[in-house]
Input
Amino acid sequence: MRLSTRVHGALDYAVGALMIVLPFVLGLGGGAERWILVAVGVATIAWSLATDYELGVLRKLQIPHHLWLDGIGGVLLAVSPWLFGFDGRAWVPHVALGLFAAAAAVFTDTIPSYERRGAR
Output
């Protein structure tokens, strides 16, 4: 089963916002464990706004490129505790959200729905 680009777009904004808020809710320290999540969350929302899909605003970034960015961002997030040396303090949210982002990239359609294409 593949995710539609519409569902993927909704997940992009929701998970991006979660990445931004979660380190503050969990009380993660002010170092890399906090700011990696925030940076990937902001980046996710930014490239979502630029993506050519139902929930995109600028519609300049093609979906396959968006999905590559999601995959790379997810892998970076998943390995960040060991890459930046905070695995002893916090790693579960980074790995969970990173794997989720990477999986969403793999299982999403690369063509927006025909509804939006016909309405253009």
The first helix runs from residue 5 to 25. The helical segments are 5-25, 32-49, 63-83, 92-106, 114-119. Residues 5-111 form one domain. The mean pLDDT is 93.
